[in-house]
Structures are given as structure tokens and as C-alpha cells.
Write a structure and sequence with these properties.
heterodimer; A: 279 residues; mainly alpha; two-stranded antiparallel ribbon; 76% helix; 1% strand; B: 294 residues; ABC transporter involved in vitamin B12 uptake, BtuC; 12 helices; 4 strands; 3% strand
Chain lengths: 279, 294
């Protein structure tokens, strides 16, 4: 999910609509599986497609909009989706959906299937983003981030790239929504709130918004470390995230993993590899 | 028809609060050059401080009002160096990073309110502040003291603010910075000090809004700030970022629209309809109905 937020931020778009997309695809998939007995694979695919379609339609309007307009569209979508779900009895309304079935029958098989899908997805998406970052499109996105006017004068189509990144991130969010629900075997509106936006934002800005490795470092640390805290402290984790976010913005605006850091690491590793080969 | 009139009166009270919020938000945007997304959350925080002071002082309205204004100004002034630091780091005015910073502040305020006050349950203000008995009742139309006071004080505060902005020396300095910061510096306007004054002034407005909201709603919850923050940013974008006159019109219209929808539909749907209308306007005209003034 953090990568879903990272991608559009490459062109300075904080695309919070991904949280709404998670909810839409997740609830839709859960409804299909529980009521119409759809196979999980089909429901997951539908989640991706639904997320992508919604993302594309919205991106047609805000593909080149300023950041604050993208933010407000995202928040508006979250509120609208929450209200609609809250008032739709078919998906449990305010109570949510519980008792989602195990994939593959038994709980153990369910667990391993989920782990396999998740890690497979992380590797696939990570590879795609890595390739994107090292392509012409990635450089175009960096140019838009630094100076949209300059990027336009260099021939970059801001709107097209914005649409591409927003659609991809929404597709990803759709799939994540389905997986999220089936991992916890339930859906509740409390998952899709401003808190989730805050957590994702902290992951991106603390880890480093200019490279995909920032998310790789920050997501497990920020999610995992509070689990080690005693419950009294862990319940304040949003405050901790908020303080961390502010400190990083003030003291280290690019986050912990910067492109320079990644470049230095790559150089260091390639030197070591060369040395080993010569020996 | 009675329902309609009653809801329009409600809407005017609510709208005047939106107008005040948008005005404070736009002031910070134009003069201090920040998108203070958490400004409404600061207002809700002040409401909570007022609630605490009212409880401690046996519902002393004067002390409650002072606490609301003081806490709001204090919080705004404390956050000022953080915003200044973030902006300095990025070389020049950077609306995006200040928006993210204020979102961080908002996260902290909301979570502190939901953990540290009244065990996270919504708080209720005493009747002395909101008033429960109607001043006027004609059929379905009933006018409560809270509605009247928020409307009157809202009109006075907005008029006072616009007078300050357009008829005083300080107001001219604010507008000069909003129009052209470099030009303002050239003619000797101290940017830093005027920026700080805008934080203090929006803090003062925030304190007044906290009192009016407490009088109008009679209660508050930790997530109230998030909902209002979203609406304020939406009003500001629909009107055109930084457009004070546009904010006045759109703020009032949103208040009336919301109240009318609430009169005919159940509570949660009314919010969704208001949001859908906002979404359509934002998607169709991302630069706002009255144009961006940045």
C-alpha cells in the first residue's frame, strides 16, 4: 500500500483515494465470495480491475491537478465510500463483514497461500517499480516532481504520466484491499480511516519518498517495532508516528533513504563485487 | 416550507463558522504561505481545552472563552517555527511540505484527544454555553441561543476581519505579502514578523470559532477536526485557494446546503451528498469557482 502511495508521489501527487479503493475492492470481493461463492482468485483479479477502473476514471480529471486538489479528492472519496458502505446492509453496514472463508479450506493452507501471494506480489511490484524508476518514464516523473514547467518544456506529458501512475497505484490498492480483508478474515470501516492515511504517509516520508527502498525499510520497522512495545505505549502509536513524521520533515526532509544513499550503496557493493572477482 | 426555513437558519449559523474557518485558513495560506490542514483540528483542540476549563471552574464562561482563545493562539504560535523550518529547508515557499507537516500535527491532535480526554468519548458542553431552550418557536422552526450567538458573532468576526484586512495598515501589509512577497519586502514590510502576526490572528480566530462551534453543536468528538478540516480545505479549493471573498460565499452556501440536505435525508447520507457535490465541483474546476489567489 505504501508503494501505491509512493508511485503517484513521484509526480508530487498524494493520492489518498487508494484507501477508498481498498475499501471498494475489498468489500466487493468479500461480497462476491460470501454471497455468490466466487473463487478467491477471481475475486482478487476483480479487486485489481475494479481499483484500476476507478483510478483511471478519476485520473482523467486529476491527472495533472495540483497536490492539494488530489489530496482533497482522495479525502472526499474516502468519506463518500465510508458513508455508502455504512448505509449498505448487504455488506454489513456499520457492523462490517465477518467470517470470510479460508482460502484452500484449512487455516494453515489459508495462511501459506496468503503469504505466498503477498510475497509474490511484493517481489513483482517491487521489480516493476524498480524498472520504472530506472526508465525514461521514471526520469520524467523526477523532472515533474522538481519542476513541472521545466518538465513540460522538455516534452514530458504531465497528464499522461499522472494518469498512468494514479491508475497503477489504484490497481495495486484494489488488490491490497482484497488481500487485507482475507488476511484478517473480516472487513470493518474502521480500517479505512484517516489513521491509515497517516500510517502510509509516515512510512513514505520517514523511509524516503524519492526511492522505493525507503518504503522497504520503513514499512516493516514502523509496523513491527510498535508490536514490541507494551500495550500502554503501543496504543499511542499514531502519536509516535505523527511525532516521527514531523521530526523527519523538519530535520531530514528527504527521509532516511535518499537517492544519494542508494547510489553510494550500489557503488560500494559493486566495488566489493569487483574486488572479489579480481581475487 | 417550515422545514426549509428552519434548515436555512441552521445553515446560516453553520455557514458562518465555515466562513470563519476558511478565512483563518486562507490568511495562513496567503501571508504565512502554508496549507495548515490541521487548523480545524487546532480549533477542536481548543474546544477540548475550553471543556476542561469549564469543568474546573464550575462553568465560568469568561474563563472558558479566554482558555479557548489563549490555547488556539498558543498552539498556532508554537507550530510556527516548525512550518518556517520546513519552508526554509526547501528553499522557498512549498505548500506541499507544509501540508504534510500539518497533517502530522493533525494526526497527533486527533490521537491525543481520543486518548487523553474523557477516555475518548465525545464531550458535552454545559447548557450555559449552548442554551437548550429555544428563543423563538413557530411550528417546526425553533431558534436556539447557540444558533443566534454563532450567527451574530460569526458576522461580527468576519466583518471585523475584513475591515482589518482592507482598512488598516496591518491589513495592507498582509495583502501586500499575499500579492507579492518580494515586492512587500522591497517596500519595507517585515515578512517574518507579519507572518507571525498572521499565525496569532488566525489563532485568535480559531479561539472564537472553537467557542462558536461549542455553542452551536453543544458537543465535540476527537474526529470532529478531521471532518471539518476536510470541508474547510474543500471549501477553500471550490472557492479558489486564497480567495477570501470566494471563501465567504462558498462557506455560507455549503452550510446552507448541508443543513437543507440534513432536513430531508438521514444524517450520514446528508454528509455524503455534500461531499459528492464538492467532488463534482473539484473535478470539474480544480482551480475553484472564483479563481486561485496565490
Amino acid at each position: 500500500m505504501s508503494w501505491a502511495l509512493y508511485l503517484p508521489y513521484r509526480v508530487a501527487h498524494l493520492h489518498f483515494i487508494i484507501v477508498a479503493n481498498m475499501a471498494i475492492s475489498g468489500y466487493a470481493a468479500a461480497y462476491l465470495v460470501m454471497t455468490w461463492h466466487f473463487p478467491f482468485g477471481w475475486a482478487l483479479a476483480l479487486g485489481f480491475v475494479l481499483g484500476g477502473i476507478i483510478g483511471y476514471i478519476v485520473a482523467l480529471f486529476i491527472g495533472d491537478a495540483p497536490t492539494f486538489a488530489v489530496v482533497i479528492v482522495g479525502f472526499t472519496f474516502i468519506y463518500i465510500v465510508r458513508t455508502v458502505i455504512e448505509n449498505t446492509e448487504a455488506v454489513g453496514g456499520t457492523m462490517g463483514m465477518f467470517g470470510l472463508p479460508n482460502i484452500g479450506g484449512s487455516p494453515i493452507l489459508h495462511r501459506w497461500t496468503m503469504i505466498a501471494i503477498l510475497y509474490g506480489l511484493v517481489l513483482l511490484v517491487g521489480f516493476c517499480i524498480y524498472r520504472f524508476d530506472h526508465s525514461r518514464l521514471g526520469r520524467a516523473a523526477s523532472a515533474i516532481f522538481v519542476d513541472p514547467d521545466l518538465a513540460t518544456s522538455l516534452g514530458v506529458d504531465i497528464k499522461k504520466l499522472g494518469i498512468l501512475l494514479q491508475t497503477f497505484s489504484c490497481t495495486l490498492a484494489g488488490g491490497c484491499g482484497v488481500l487485507y480483508g482475507f488476511i484478517f478474515k473480516s472487513f470493518h470501516l474502521d480500517y479505512f480511516t484517516f489513521h491509515m492515511v497517516g500510517i502510509l504517509m509516515t512510512v513514505i516520508f520517514v523511509g524516503g519518498y524519492a526511492t522505493l527502498w525507503g518504503v522497504v525499510l520503513a514499512a516493516p520497522v514502523l509496523y513491527g517495532v510498535p508490536l514490541l512495545f507494551p500495550p500502554q505505549i503501543a496504543s499511542w502509536r499514531i502519536v509516535i508516528y505523527g511525532v516521527l513524521l514531523i521530526l523527519v520533515l523538519v530535520l531530514k526532509p528527504e527521509g532516511f533513504i535518499t537517492p544519494r544513499f542508494v547510489y553510494n550503496m550500489e557503488t560500494f557493493l559493486s566495488r566489493r563485487r569487483k574486488k572479489r572477482n579480481t581475487l | 416550507m417550515e422545514v426549509f426555513i428552519a434548515q436555512v437558519i441552521n445553515g446560516l449559523s453553520l455557514g458562518s463558522i465555515y466562513v470563519l474557518l476558511v478565512t483563518g485558513f486562507n490568511l495562513l495560506l496567503l501571508v504565512a504561505m502554508i496549507i495548515h490542514f490541521a487548523y480545524p483540528q487546532v480549533v477542536v483542540f481548543s474546544m477540548y481545552i475550553t471543556w476542561v476549563v469549564l469543568r474546573l471552574t464550575g462553568n465560568s464562561l469568561l474563563l472558558g472563552a479566554l482558555a479557548a482563545v489563549a490555547s488556539s493562539i498558543f498552539f498556532n504560535m508554537v507550530s510556527a517555527p516548525l512550518f518556517q523550518k520546513v519552508m526554509k529547508k526547501r528553499g522557498e515557499v512549498d505548500i506541499n511540505s507544509t501540508m504534510v507537516l500539518s497533517m502530522g500535527i493533525g494526526m497527533i491532535i486527533t490521537d491525543v484527544l481520543s486518548h487523553g480526554f474523557n477516555k475518548g468519548f465525545p464531550i458535552a458542553f454545559p447548557d450555559e454555553l449552548s442554551g437548550k431552550t429555544a428563543i423563538l418557536r413557530i411550528g417546526l422552526i425553533s431558534i436556539l441561543p447557540g444558533q443566534v450567538s454563532s450567527l451574530i458573532v460569526g458576522i461580527i468576526a468576519v466583518s471585523g476581519f475584513f475591515l482589518l484586512l482592507y482598512k488598516t495598515r496591518a491589513g495592507r501589509a498582509f495583502r501586500a505579502i499575499a500579492e507579492d512577497p518580494n515586492g512587500a519586502r522591497l517596500v519595507g514590510i517585515p515578512l517574518f514578523r507579519t507572518g507571525l502576526e498572521s499565525y496569532a490572528l488566525s489563532g485568535l480566530l480559531g479561539g472564537i470559532i472553537a467557542l462558536l462551534l461549542a455553542a452551536l453543536l453543544g458537543s465535540a468528538s476527537p474526529d470532529l477536526g478531521e471532518q471539518v478540516a476536510h470541508k474547510v480545505l474543500a471549501v477553500s479549493i471550490i472557492a479558489g485557494l486564497g480567495n477570501l471573498a470566494g471563501g465567504l460565499v462558498v462557506g455560507l452556501l455549503l452550510g446552507i446546503l448541508e443543513a437543507i440536505v440534513q432536513g430531508y435525508l438521514s444524517g450520514s447520507w446528508s454528509n455524503a451528498i455534500a461531499f459528492v457535490i464538492m467532488l463534482v465541483v473539484i473535478l470539474a474546476k480544480p482551480k475553484g469557482l472564483f479563481g486561485i489567489k496565490l
